[in-house]
Amino acid sequence: MEIISGLNQKKRHFCEIEIHSYLRDHCLEGKVILPAVESLILLARAVKQNYPRTEINCLQNAAFSRFLTITQDIENQPVIVDVENSGSGIIAATLLTSMKSKTGTISREVEHARVEFCTINPKEVVTHHFRVLDKLKGECISVPSTTIYRELVPFGTAYRNIVGDLSVSSEGALAYLAGGDHEAAENLLGSPFPMDATMHAACVWGQRFAGIVSFPVGFEKRIIYQKTKKKEEYLGRVIPVNMTGDMLIFDAWIYKEDIMCEYIKGLKMKDVTRGRMHPPDWIKVNL
User: Fold this and answer.
1) Domain that holds residue 212
2) pLDDT tens digits for the chain (287 residues)?
3) Is residue 173 part of a domain?
4) Pairs from 281-287 (Cβ < 8 Å, separation ≥ 24)
5) Which of 283, 269, 261 is nearest to 240 (CA)?
6) Is residue 132 part of a domain?
7) Which has the least CB within 10 A, 70, 127, 264, 270?
8) Considering its fold, how many domains does the chain have in total?
9) Are residues 167 and 275 in the same domain?
10) Which DSSP letter does residue 100 get?
């Protein structure tokens, strides 16, 4: 990995993402897409390399601005990671790629993801407001995970990490989540699979109660209290906070038994296909 230093504590990394086979299970409209959770790991790794003593368990102002499409015939994806230390307890990291014009004479940088790592008092105390972790209020339906990954979130095997049935009511969604496996890194932010599956639960809620197929485009804050691990099982819970136009906003929690592992505040979900994808009629509630 090459490091280029700049002014104002800015550093640029030119690196490559090794495209393990499991990443190809993350597809949208026939294209392999780098998962948002994997981009966060990549950004965290760059920050940790530059600032080894920095805590990276509090992330904020995340934006997943554009999908990073992985072509079928490559083993490594070249990317750029910019790291900027403002000196105010915030280290920002941005994931970019360089794209050339059809003639090959002009190149431009495209931003795919950006997040800030809070380095001062990163572990604020967050409590939940529901009395029972594994119960939802309101009229509830159960959707089997096999149905979810066949008809609602059609990813490949590596990203089918909702376990058993997903419970869905107007109050939110609740499910057990697998910690996943494969070559994914878990030493920095924990296993990426539980958070990814939490987004699947939010997607199903949006299909039922908002009538859209939504994908994550950012979050306000993510606090990691205890890193999730591969091959473990967790409880994930999402609740809707706001619906603004085509944007759905959720808060989410991931637990190991009664211990909070992660809190995600202001998870933003949006129909990025501009209506090309539609929920099946059977999942939509009669509003």
Assistant:
1) 141-283
2) 333 343 357 899 999 999 999 999 999 988 999 999 999 999 999 999 999 988 899 999 999 999 999 988 899 999 999 999 988 889 999 999 988 656 666 678 999 999 999 986 656 777 777 878 888 988 999 999 999 999 999 999 999 999 999 999 999 999 999 999 999 999 999 999 999 999 999 999 999 999 999 999 999 999 999 999 999 999 999 999 999 878 999 999 999 999 999 999 999 999 998 889 999 999 999 75
3) yes
4) 283/143, 283/151, 283/152, 283/204, 283/207, 283/208, 284/207, 284/208, 284/211, 285/170, 285/208, 285/209, 287/209
5) 269
6) no
7) 127
8) 2
9) yes
10) E
CA torsion 255→215→119→51, rounded to 10°?
110
Whether pTM > 0.85 for this model: the answer is yes
The residue with tokens 């230093």 is 5
19 and 69 in contact (C-beta within 8 Å)? Answer: no
Q: Does residue 130 lie in a domain region?
A: no
Are residues 209 and 189 in contact, defined by beta-carbon separation less than 8 angstroms? no
